[in-house]
Amino acid sequence: AAGKTVTLLGRDADAMEQMTATRENPRLPDRPLPDQLALTASPEVLADADIVLLAMPAQALRSYLDSHSDKLSGKALVACCKGIDMTTLSGPTATIKTAVPTATPAILSGPSFAADIAKGLPTALTIACPDDAVGQTLQTALSTPTLRLYRTTDTTGVELGGALKNVIAIACGVSTGAELGDSARAALMTRGSHEVRQLAERMGADPQTLGGLAGFGDLALTCTSQQSRNYRFGIAIGRNAPFDPSVTVEGASTAKAVRKLAHDLDIDLPICTVVAKLCNQEITVKQALDTLLSRPLKEE
Ligand SMILES: NC(=O)C1=CN([C@@H]2O[C@H](COP(=O)(O)OP(=O)(O)OC[C@H]3O[C@@H](n4cnc5c(N)ncnc54)[C@H](O)[C@@H]3O)[C@@H](O)[C@H]2O)C=CC1
Ligand SMILES: O=C(CO)COP(=O)(O)O
């Protein structure tokens, strides 16, 4: 955030000390940290912040908020994660509301790889906040000359667009890994985006949001870029190759949550369901393909 006092809080004191010494994040090599960025491993710093960006995997959000709720009351809490909690089936803003009822929840999502932003490459994202006045403050505070934030109050659309595109990206990766061709990937992106819309609209999302950066934009990026961990995870499944289990693959957990939601809401989401089964090693790639291709023909 340009011209703001920003502190990076991490859990691992050794890692934070090392970053303080080297002024570099080992995950983003060759990008020196801005001089004005402070680093700490002390959660006490949360009490001094007006805005807290929660940049952690979606499945970690609930326990993190529960542990630190006393320091977070009354603040603007911006979820940066893309997922649905597997236990509660809630999106990040509902998780925030439950854990810290006095906070204003928001979500930042859209097509962006951390490495691109760290390089200062042009990027556009969506900030969603139910309180539009707070949304405007966040939009101004978090935009920079190269990072352009669009604003909405539709948190449901933004969080479901961001969470579900990861599941579709895994499907596209599987298709690429199994060498099924670019046409098959385009079909999965299109029918996948239909599934995203179906579930998200049923849960109250504005259809327009799903055509925006957090929906179409992020689906397009994640389903086609080798930089995406979800896409690469799918490629590994498609090739029957191993994948480093320490890498965060949000779509694998989200697929499980979506499978439960589809069942509870009685919605047919065939691509998301086969991805959940593939991630759970319940079916082979050949069985996934047969399942999708043998479905009855229907209107588009
Ligand atoms: N890396 C990227 O390019 C982008 C990531 N995102 C989203 O941001 C979220 C986080 O992704 P990454 O930063 O890449 O993941 P990551 O795996 O690097 O995790 C980020 C941080 O969360 C911390 N963390 C992990 N478990 C935790 C826990 N239980 N409690 C507290 N902190 C914990 C990790 O130590 C790490 O410092 C994901 O939902 C991802 O989809 C969104 C856009 C781009
Ligand atoms: O959300 C992202 C890009 O917008 C990051 O994607 P991955 O988590 O698949 O790497």
From TrEMBL:
Naturally occurring in which organism (per UniProt): Cognatiyoonia koreensis
Residues reported in the UniProt entry to bind NADPH: 11, 82, 114, 229, 250
Q: Under which EC number(s) is this enzyme classified?
A: 1.1.1.94
Task: Tell me which domain of life the UniProt entry assigns to the organism this sequence originates from.
Answer: Bacteria
List the protein's name: Glycerol-3-phosphate dehydrogenase [NAD(P)+]
Q: List, for all copies, the residue spans of the domain called Glycerol-3-phosphate dehydrogenase NAD-dependent N-terminal.
A: 1-133
Positions with a binding annotation for substrate = 82, 229-230
High-level lineage:
Bacteria, Pseudomonadati, Pseudomonadota, Alphaproteobacteria, Rhodobacterales
According to its UniProt entry, the protein's GO biological process terms are: carbohydrate metabolic process; glycerol-3-phosphate biosynthetic process; glycerol-3-phosphate catabolic process; glycerophospholipid metabolic process; phospholipid biosynthetic process
Pathway the protein takes part in? Membrane lipid metabolism; glycerophospholipid metabolism
Q: Name one GO cellular component term.
A: cytosol
Task: Name the catalysed reactions.
Answer: sn-glycerol 3-phosphate + NADP(+) = dihydroxyacetone phosphate + NADPH + H(+); sn-glycerol 3-phosphate + NAD(+) = dihydroxyacetone phosphate + NADH + H(+)
The primary location reported for this protein is cytoplasm
InterPro entries named among the record's database cross-references: 6-PGluconate_DH-like_C_sf, 6PGD_dom2, G3P_DH_NAD-dep, G3P_DH_NAD-dep_C, G3P_DH_NAD-dep_N, NAD(P)-bd_dom_sf
Cellular compartment(s) = Cytoplasm
Positions with a binding annotation for NAD(+): 114, 229
List the coiled-coil residues. Answer: none
| Molecular-function GO term, any one | glycerol-3-phosphate dehydrogenase (NAD+) activity
Family assignment? Belongs to the NAD-dependent glycerol-3-phosphate dehydrogenase family.
| PANTHER family, A to Z | GLYCEROL-3-PHOSPHATE DEHYDROGENASE, GLYCEROL-3-PHOSPHATE DEHYDROGENASE [NAD(+)] 2, CHLOROPLASTIC
This chain's function reads:
Catalyzes the reduction of the glycolytic intermediate dihydroxyacetone phosphate (DHAP) to sn-glycerol 3-phosphate (G3P), the key precursor for phospholipid synthesis.
Q: Which residues bind sn-glycerol 3-phosphate?
A: 82, 110, 112, 165, 218, 228-230
The catalytic site is made up of 165 (proton acceptor)
Q: Which UniProt keywords apply?
A: Cytoplasm, Lipid biosynthesis, Lipid metabolism, NAD, NADP, Nucleotide-binding, Oxidoreductase, Phospholipid biosynthesis, Phospholipid metabolism, Signal
Q: Where is the Glycerol-3-phosphate dehydrogenase NAD-dependent C-terminal domain?
A: 154-289
